[in-house]
Amino acid sequence: MTEPDILDQAAAWRADGKGVALATVVVTWGSSPRPVGSQLAVDDAGAFVGSVSGGCIEGAVVREALDCIGDGKPRLLDFGISNEQAWDVGLACGGKVQVFVERVE
Amino acid sequence: MKAAILSTLRETRAAKVPVALATHLASGAARLVWPDRTEGELELDDGAVAAALQALRDDRGRTIETADGPVFVNVYNPPRRLVVVGAVHIAQPLVPMAAIGGYQVVVIDPRHGFATDARFPQVTLDTDWPDEAMERVKPDVRTAVVTLTHDPKLDDPALAVALRSPAFYIGALGSRRTHAARVERLKALGFGDNEIGRIHAPVGLDIGAVSPAEIAVSIMAQITQTLHAEPAA
């Protein structure tokens, strides 16, 4: 079983009339489980495909993605050990990642 | 991301054409960048386009600084592939090296005694005649082709298909003398000097390789060098 392609899924959700956001890893420092360019697509109900980490920040990214679907503003999110929020969401690997979130228009 | 960008991106990817997507992180404005053209609302200067194309060649996304702020370049390359013609001794170390390096590998050899699963575990083997097998593979700009059989009946038809394809690398095993004879045969088939000049022969970087494994290293090194080289102006 293979996961659906992220861009194809984003397009399919749009075709169904759903709001969709794309999250993309744009910078990594240290030990990050997913490389730069990794993507996650989110629909307006919070369903998602793909990954931007080993699972530790997906929840926070999905929440931001839902806000992004609502207001249409792109976002640049920082997760890392120097960031209070990172402790909350638990980036246990000790790495840092920056994730860009944008709405699919 | 604009729907038009997403649509073109998916079409380009389906056509197995490499493309970079540059996105302005503050605004979300984007531009698709191909080696020969660009498309989208984001303005990019020549330096930014060159940086995007370098990211594409490196197969690694990156953030670039522009006068208008940071722009993220994501790369969408078709999978790298290696076609090995000749299930010979050199192919045995070459195949796993290429697989580790991220290549999808196909080994073509119509000689059933050579192309066996025992000699080549976990790789796609094709025992059709090389020209037919190569037509099926359809080498693209992310495909390398290496002929290793030493037998013109097998190597030449594969090289003919490779030379008519946009394969980024074509290499042929054989000494200078062997290659000189090969050049004459390919000319007789109607290929010109520029086309034949695409063939790396003798194959591999000159690192004094002797054993099959060392020759495989020299071939992988040359493929890697060619993959990352800036295109000739």
How would you summarize the topology of this molecule?
The complex is a heterodimer of chains A (105) and B (233).
Chain A: H1 6-15, E1 20-29, E2 39-43, E3 48-50, H2 58-71, E4 75-79, H3 84-89, E5 96-103
Antiparallel strand pairs in A: 1-2, 1-5, 2-3, 4-5
Chain B: H1 3-14, E1 19-24, E2 30-33, E3 38-40, H2 46-58, E4 62-66, E5 69-76, E6 81-85, H3 91-100, E7 104-108, E8 124-126, H4 130-137, E9 143-147, H5 152-163, E10 169-172, H6 176-188, H7 193-196, E11 199-200, H8 212-228
Helix pairs in contact in B: 3-8, 4-5
Q: Which key terms come to mind for this protein?
A:
heterodimer; A: 105 residues; alpha+beta; 5-stranded antiparallel sheet; 5 strands; 29% helix; B: 233 residues; alpha/beta; Rossmann fold; 2 domains; 6-stranded parallel sheet; 8 helices; 11 strands; 21% strand; elongated
Short description:
The complex is a heterodimer of chains A (105) and B (233). By secondary structure, chain A is α+β, with helices and mostly antiparallel strands.
The sequence of SSEs of chain A as H and E is HEEEHEHE
Strand percent estimate of chain A: 25-35%
CATH fold name of the largest domain in chain B, please?
Rossmann fold
Helix content of chain A: 25-40%
What is the total domain count of chain A?
1
Question: Radius of gyration of chain A over alpha carbons?
Answer: 13 Å
Kindly state the percentage of residues in helix of chain B.
25-40%
- Name the CATH class of the largest domain in chain B: Alpha Beta
Oligomeric assembly: heterodimer
What general outline of chain A do the C-alpha atoms trace?
globular
Please give the order of strands in the largest beta sheet of chain B. 8-7-6-9-10-11
Number of helices of chain B: 8
Structural class of chain A: alpha+beta
Order of helices and strands of chain B: HEEEHEEEHEEHEHEHHEH
**Spans where pLDDT lies below 50 across 5 or more residues of chain A:** none
Approximate strand percentage of chain B: 15-25%
Biggest sheet details of chain A: 5 strands, antiparallel
Which ranges of chain B are low-confidence, i.e. pLDDT below 50, for 5 or more consecutive residues?
Answer: none
Amino- and carboxy-terminal Cα gap of chain B: 33 Å
Largest sheet composition of chain B: 6 strands, parallel
